């Protein structure tokens, strides 16, 4: 982290000509299980990873907002008075979208027209488009920084909502609350069991290291965007399914409701609904197995989750399917695509001793299939967003 923090501070100073007031960072995430359940008020079990995004920040005496990023040329400037979703485009919509959402939250608590402007410089080690929530890492780092610099005193679950609002209202991606929750609430060596209805969370020890297990990310390097049609159409199908079945959200249904769902819904909506109902159950089963028997016992749930996403939710791709099936053939305990789908990354839980063979074998399978070479690396569960010393 010190590398990223040093880099971030130096970048700020090179762009703005003075030293930042502070530097805040937030991690990307991997979802262990519970996909497309968050916006159905269901359960998810993500972990924060060691790759982080940092924002170095300085308060201004005027009402100007300036943002710059190591990944894009130039500085984007906007006056506070012009801070509306319509005025925000491109990469700057993420940090400025958070500023917009934070200023709305501030306005609910008192006059927000006195909030001072800011200079923000972004540096990141989270690869974009890999399904590791680089956008949530950015949003959460900025939300934590603004919360402190503007003295708002918001709790972390509220900051997660603000990150989600920025993404939904400004970037235009109708995503749920999982990524921001993982990034803000992650803990080393723990998965975060999230109840996306109550926003209650429980940190559950993963025990991967003690069990001599590694979690590999297989980034297929095929990109995805949740502002495109696929993600939104899945969300619409879930909402239509819930309406047709007379519940507020699919969270309110369990496996015993599947026969009724099959009778009421058209076949495609039924498959979408079946994924969510069974996936919620798999999250709870995974956590129960982890607590009772340890991480060696969760593989079957990961495998079943992938099949459900491939066949019922139809969000996998040939690259993700090959990543999963080849890892499984090479001895992975369990494997599944992770994140929103349509590209991005898969995860494989493997014995430490098998990690090299699995990584090499998956890369060979990709080469044989004529796919671009995947980027394969281990991740461990890391701490959530924080101010860096
Ligand atoms: C993306 C979204 C999340 C969640 C996942 C799928 O990562 O940002 O809110 O819906 O997809 O589980």
Structure description:
By secondary structure, the protein is of the alpha+beta class. Helix content is about 40%, strand content about 20%. The protein has two domains: about 210 residues, Ribosomal Protein S5, domain 2, CATH 3.30.230.10; about 170 residues, Alpha-Beta Plaits. The longest helix has 27 residues. The protein binds alpha-D-galactopyranose. Alpha-D-galactopyranose binds next to α5.
CATH architecture of the largest domain: 2-Layer Sandwich
What structural class do you assign from the helix and strand content? Answer: alpha+beta
The span between the termini is 11 Å
In N-to-C order, the SSE pattern is HEEEEHEHHHEEEHHHHHEEHEE
Number of domains: 2
Could you tell me the mean pLDDT?
Answer: 96
The global form is globular
How big a fraction of the residues is strand?
15-25%
The profile of the biggest β sheet is: 8 strands, mixed
User: Which compounds are bound in this model?
Assistant: alpha-D-galactopyranose
Counted by DSSP, the helix tally is 11
Let me know the number of strands.
Answer: 12
What do we call the CATH topology of the largest domain? Ribosomal Protein S5, domain 2
Rounded to an integer in angstroms, the radius of gyration calculated over CA atoms is 21 Å
């Amino acid at each position: 982290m010190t590398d990223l923090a040093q880099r971030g501070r130096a970048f700020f100073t090179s762009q703005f000509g003075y030293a930042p007031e502070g530097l805040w960072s937030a991690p990307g995430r991997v979802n262990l299980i519970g996909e497309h359940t968050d916006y159905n008020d269901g359960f998810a079990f993500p972990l924060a990873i060691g790759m982080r995004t940092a924002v170095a920040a300085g308060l201004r005496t005027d009402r100007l907002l300036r943002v710059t990023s190591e990944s894009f040329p130039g500085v984007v400037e906007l006056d506070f008075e012009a801070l509306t979703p319509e005025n925000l485009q491109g990469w700057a919509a993420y940090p400025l979208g958070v500023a917009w959402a934070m200023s709305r939250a501030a306005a609910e608590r008192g006059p927000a027209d006195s909030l001072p402007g800011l200079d923000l410089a972004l540096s990141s080690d989270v690869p974009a488009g890999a399904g590791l929530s680089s956008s949530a890492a950015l949003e959460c780092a900025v939300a934590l920084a603004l919360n402190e610099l503007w003295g708002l005193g918001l709790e972390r679950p509220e900051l997660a909502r603000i990150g989600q609002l920025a993404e939904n209202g400004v970037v235009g991606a109708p995503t749920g609350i999982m990524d921001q929750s993982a990034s803000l609430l992650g803990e080393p060596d723990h998965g975060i069991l999230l109840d996306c209805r109550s926003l209650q969370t429980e940190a559950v020890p993963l025990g991967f290291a003690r069990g001599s297990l590694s979690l590999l990310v297989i980034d297929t390097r095929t990109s995805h965007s949740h502002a495109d049609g696929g993600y939104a159409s899945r969300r619409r199908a879930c909402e239509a399914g819930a309406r047709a079945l007379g519940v507020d959200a699919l969270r309110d249904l369990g496996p015993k409701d599947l026969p009724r769902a099959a009778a009421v819904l058209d076949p495609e909506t039924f498959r979408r609904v079946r994924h969510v109902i069974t996936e919620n159950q798999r999250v709870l089963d995974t956590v129960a197995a982890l607590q009772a028997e340890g991480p060696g016992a969760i593989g079957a749930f990961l495998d079943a989750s992938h099949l459900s996403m491939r066949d019922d939710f139809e969000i996998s791709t040939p690259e993700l399917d090959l990543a999963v099936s080849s890892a499984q053939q090479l001895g992975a305990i369990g494997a599944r695509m992770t994140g929103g789908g349509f590209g991005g990354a898969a995860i494989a839980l493997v014995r430490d001793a098998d990690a090299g063979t699995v990584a090499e074998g998956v890369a060979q399978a990709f080469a044989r299939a004529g796919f671009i070479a995947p980027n394969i690396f281990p991740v461990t569960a890391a701490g959530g967003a924080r101010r860096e010393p």
